[in-house]
Amino acid sequence: RNEGDMPMYVKVLLSVFSVVYAAAVAIVTQFDKIKSFIIPYVADEFAVGNMQAESSWYGFEAFAGVLLLTGLVAALVLFARKRSFNGIAALSAGVMSYMFATTLFVAPQVEKYSQGAVIEFLESKKGEDCYICLPYYKSYAHYFYSDRQPGNTCDDREYLLRGALDKPCYIVLHDVEDQRRSIAADSPDAGLIYEKNGFAFYRREPSAK
Fold first, then answer.
1. Alpha-carbon distance 180 to 186, whole Å?
2. So where does this one cross the membrane (predicted)?
3. Of the four, 74, 102, 109, 166, which is 20 to 30 A from 61 by CA?
């Protein structure tokens, strides 16, 4: 090997990882078509609920993988011609293009599976004078998506679940058996509003004055 040449094992690793990442994007864009074959083998109740969501795939998202592979091929050709600097530049351009495209077009669609239902619910509470409580899992989503203000922000879980409220409180939890049992025990007067894509939404009413 000449001084400055890219080692063969590095080229192989770059090729393997590039193909894997490109294939991952291509597969995830087809998820709505294949998820019915996957769900029967998934044991996690919350994950199954998430998979019920639908995303708006347009078909061009897989082009992110093409950008990555184009950068890889260009880099390998340049490496073979002993132009290592240009090869690294080509590979870097492919990687950055891939990251930009997946961040812009793929990640928002994937988010619809993981928390689309809860984001939709929280955004519907913007401007409403209410509390929002996520008692059984850690998230800061409600502070951002529902635009919480000092007057309707409260982190006192005991008060929100059992106390005499001065305004309505919406409770968000994963739609799984243990959390459903917990809310029934911790806040028996909380009424179920609806369930969607792995999440359950409840409401506690303010105390009568």
1. 10
2. 12-31, 57-80, 87-107
3. 74
Q: Which two tokens stand for residue 165?
A: 């409220």
* Rg value, the chain, Cα: 24
For residue range 88-146, list pLDDT tens digits in order. Answer: 999 999 999 999 999 999 999 999 999 999 999 999 999 899 999 999 999 888 888 98
pLDDT digits (tens, 9 = 90+) for 63-103: 999 999 999 999 999 988 888 889 999 999 999 999 999 99
Q: Maximum Cα–Cα distance for the chain, whole Å?
A: 85
Contact between residue 24 and residue 69 where contact means Cβ atoms under 8 Å apart: no
Given pLDDT bands bounded at 50, 70 and 90, which one contains residue 7? confident
For 156-203, the DSSP string reads: -HHHHHHS--SS-EEEEEESSHHHHHHHHHH-TTPEEEEEETTEEEEE
On whether the CB atoms of residues 209 and 176 are closer than 8 A, the answer is no
Structure tokens given for 124: 């519907």
Quick check: helix, strand or coil at residue 88?
A: helix
Q: What is the rounded end-to-end Cα distance, in angstroms, of the chain?
A: 84
Closest CA to 172 of 150, 143, 151, 129: 143
CA distance 170 to 191: 9
